[in-house]
Amino acid sequence: MDFVDYYKTLGLDKNASADDIKKAYRKLARKLHPDLNPNDKEAHRKFQQINEANEVLSDPEKRKKYDQYGENWKHAEQYEQARQQSGRGHDPTGGFGGDPFQQYTYSSGDESDFSDFFESLFGGTGGGRRSSRARYRGQDYQAELHLPLTEAYRTHKQTLTVHSKQVRITIPAGVENGQVIRLRGYGGEGVNGGPAGDLLITFVIDNNTSFRRDGNNLYKTEEIDLYTAVLGGEKTIDTLDGKIKLKVAPYTQNGTTVRLKGKGFAVYKKDGEYGDLYVTWQVKLPTHLTERGKQLFTELSKL
């Protein structure tokens, strides 16, 4: 089996200082990070190796054990216990005598016998080593979804294509412009059985209406003619939920605002709840009058 030299993994020798280890790890981590190499399995493997190497070599106690026992540094305590038992006359080899670890002393060369011995002593056929491999969470994916305001008003389903995969999602009514929704587990695959990353969707709401949205409320301006403003009447207007008739009170002044409760925008993740619609009346003056019309206005001005 192959021996992983943590020093070589970081491009260092055994005399490297703690500062050397830190600098080497940071340099390699920036180069091999999964976020920068989303589809490079080799980079993911190397990133896992440098993390494992840094975890051991940056810890003085772990590094000391690794320098003495190599890849099997995790079994240092069992090694010492067996050695002490052998020194007291106990024969853990079952009758062969002597120090059972003598022939497996660590060296920088081939330590396959040493590794095989520990695997047989503590059980498994390399499973311990595999279980020590770090698991890393997959990369988060970013996506931008454009929606017209009329679609953001209602809950609906939509299919997205992210990294060649189709993802069907339910978009709740009331999403805001710039709002980010996180879909857990829809990002990149994890490394060594780690969890998948997430998919982060940023919504861009394009206003395709005459309304202005502010949170859950909607605002719009509607024109009424001078006669309706003075005498009162009715005006049919559009809402996001269809057309409605509004009464215009007599003597309505230009700029008057009326509030329609519950006729605004859907409240996010609160089924059946809506903000309000504010309608501002803009009185439209005549741009052309007949002679008779001018006479009538003249008469009115004298009253």
List keywords for this structure.
303 residues; alpha+beta; HSP40/DNAj peptide-binding domain; four-stranded mixed β-sheet; 10 helices; 24% strand; rod-shaped
Structure description:
The chain is an alpha+beta fold and 303 residues long. It folds into 3 domains: 6-131, Helix Hairpins; 141-206, Urease metallochaperone UreE, N-terminal domain (HSP40/DNAj peptide-binding domain), CATH 2.60.260.20; 212-302, HSP40/DNAj peptide-binding domain. Helix content is 32%, strand content 24%. It contains 10 helices and 11 strands. The strands form 4 sheets. Strands 6-7-11-10 form a 4-stranded mixed sheet. A 3-stranded mixed sheet has the order 1-5-4. β8 and β9 form a beta hairpin. It is rod-shaped, with a radius of gyration of 38 Å. Mean pLDDT is 81; it is low at 89-132.
